[in-house]
Design goal:
Elements: H1 31-40, E1 48-54, E2 57-61, E3 69-73, H2 77-87, H3 91-95, E4 105-109, E5 112-125, E6 128-140, E7 145-149, H4 157-161, H5 172-207, H6 211-241, H7 253-319, E8 321-322, E9 325-326, H8 337-358
Parallel strand pairs: 3-7
Antiparallel strand pairs: 1-2, 1-3, 4-5, 5-6, 6-7, 8-9
Helix pairs in contact: 1-2, 5-6, 5-7, 6-7, 7-8
């Protein structure tokens, strides 16, 4: 059952788009959450989930409340409109991370702050893992935190499961830094996986020089370039966050932000190192493949020259064939002449082959 929102009707038939929020709110701090609760109804879509930390445990809830977390994954237009209306967030800002080319940035708006960073993701295509980066938006209002992503990302799963130590949905600034810290550690983990994959490809390339391995090596190299670019964009966001007071609301937030910046810089260095190593490896194996082709051509050249020797001898006999026999050609009058000619041609061909294999030109 979908959430009621915007121009839709709730289960009881009420036109929610025409509902007006009462001018007086009992608890001013719960204004956003209270409005969201009235708008969302009793149930939410599978792509729109709400979580709240109660007594140290994070669990899903049906309605937003002060200090809760709204998670949007590949949201529909209805879900986007619902959240935009409930939380007073510009719809364009909610749609921003759904564009895979959206740049990382920090936007401070009236009533909320939006942080967009690139996160790593992996998906299986044709039995292989493909690594790429996609935008993740973190929007902080007065009482809620909203995350928007075009795909279901493992980055947020531990938060949903409540396995992150010290995680509370109502500690919004800490939540943001914990997401960014986990994002940096995921980059580091994927970079190590890519490094191991490149080592496996290197071993396979030593045994067989197929185009498939070369292409996979180039794909990994391209992935590292994307990772390095995204990490540098995230670094700019982190540097800007150091000047935002609303991001550092708790005593340990400043230290946690420094840890995030350190992890991100380490990921940038690893991506650059691995990218350089992989680029050199690709060039080296490209040269090896080219050298192997030259070796094959050398063998074919020797074979062609060796075969041309008996071909020349037999052609000379064939061109001098007349009705009365082969005039002037040696061994034509002997009964064993044909066999002798074949042996002589083979011997001459062997001598030519021996000479060519000892020549520097063909080594």
């Amino acid at each position: 059952m979908r959430c009621a929102c915007g121009g839709t009707r709730a289960i009881d038939g009420t036109d929610i788009s025409r509902m007006r929020i009462p001018p007086r709110v009992p608890d001013p701090e719960a204004r956003d959450a209270g409005r969201a609760a009235r708008t969302f109804g009793r149930q939410v879509s599978g792509m729109l989930r709400i979580f709240s930390t109660v007594n140290g445990h994070t669990k899903p809830i049906e309605k937003p409340e002060p200090g809760s977390w709204l998670s949007l994954t590949d949201p529909t237009d209805v879900e986007l409109t619902t959240v935009a209306t409930a939380c007073d967030i510009d719809l364009a800002d909610l749609r921003a991370p759904l564009d895979d080319e959206e740049r990382s940035r920090v936007d401070v708006e009236e009533g909320y702050t939006m942080i967009i960073v690139d996160i790593p993701t992996v998906e299986e295509r044709g039995g292989r893992d493909w690594y790429e980066t996609i935008p993740l938006s973190i929007i902080v209002t007065e009482d809620l935190i909203v995350t928007v992503c075009m795909k279901d990302t493992p980055l947020l799963h531990p938060f949903m499961e409540g396995t992150i130590r010290g995680f509370n949905t109502f500690m919004r600034s800490r939540f943001i830094l914990q997401i960014l810290y986990r994002n940096a550690t995921m980059y580091l983990r994927y970079l190590r996986i890519i490094d191991r994959e490149s080592d496996k490809l290197e071993l396979r390339l030593r045994r067989s020089m197929r185009n498939e391995e070369i292409i996979q090596l180039m794909e990994l190299s391209k992935t590292l370039v994307y990772f390095a670019t995204s990490l540098k964009s995230n670094e700019i966001v982190l540097e800007k966050m150091t000047s935002l007071d609303r991001i550092r609301q708790y005593p340990d937030d400043a230290d946690l932000l420094e840890d995030v910046i350190t992890e991100n810089k380490q990921a940038i260095e690893m991506a650059n190192i691995y990218s350089g190593v992989l680029a050199g490896m690709t060039d080296a194996f490209g040269s090896i493949v080219s050298n192997n082709v030259n070796n094959v051509m050398r063998v074919f050249t020797i074979i062609s020259i060796v075969i041309s020797v008996p071909t020349l001898i037999f052609s000379m006999y064939g061109m001098n064939f007349q009705e009365g026999g082969m005039l002037g050609m040696p061994l034509t009058g002997e009964p064993w002449g044909f066999a002798a000619i074949i042996v002589i041609a083979a011997v001459i061909g062997g001598i030519v082959a021996w000479i060519l294999t000892r020549t520097k030109m063909f080594k």
